[in-house]
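In this supplementary section we document a worked example of the pipeline. Step one takes a protein sequence of length 252 as its only input; no multiple sequence alignment statistics are reported here. Step two produces a three-dimensional model, which step three serialises into structure tokens for compact storage. The input and output of this example are shown verbatim.
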Amino acid sequence: MVAESTSLGSSPLRYRRILLKVSGEVLMGQAGFGIDMHTVEQVAREVAEISSLGVELCLVIGGGNIFRGLSTAARGMERASADYMGMLATVMNALAMQNALEKIGVDTRVQSAIPMATVCEPYIRRRALRHLEKGRVVIFAAGTGNPFFTTDTAAALRAIEIKADVLLKATKVEGVYSDDPKKVKGATKFSRISYADVLAKELKVMDSTAISLSKDNGLCIKIFDINCRGNIKRAVCGDDIGTLIDLKGGGS
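The serialised model returned by step three reads:
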């Protein structure tokens, strides 16, 4: 699902329509919990730059900075209830990002898989596509609307539904490694790897459901470090950063 390279102004673009997945932890900044609006505004400025190039852009933001259903379930809360609470956390993050984007003039819509008409639109695929065609940024919130699915899976599902050219996952690491680089000295970074190898090696870059869904539908995934300013644009332009996950792979 890779688009032909195009050029708008002086910026060559490899992808025309993208889904950007941002972890909730990114929005914490240097804090240990919650939303750091300075960090949100920094991410919003990078998103605005990409949108200004003519890219059709949508986002999925995790909720781990506020509430993580799985870890809470491990402490005794019933899993489905915990996951629903995690979905609500993603809505809070989506509204914060919408506020930051609209403050700098980017027309933005939040669509939630859990209906809450007072604060955002319900998720309707055709309406989302229309927003993208009109140049609006669309933020998909509340995961898939179902418990037992992560926001990684929600991102893969939405990307496939809107026919995105690529799923960009912005993380706190430079890409996919053979082991946790924070724990294993000399861990190897892959520049390109196949879905099958990610699953076989049990690499924890995304959950297995998201990887399998992407594999079955030919959705390429790009993992990169969002802490390096300008990396979102580099990823959209097809620069050699991070790790590309696709059918062929290619090793380290």
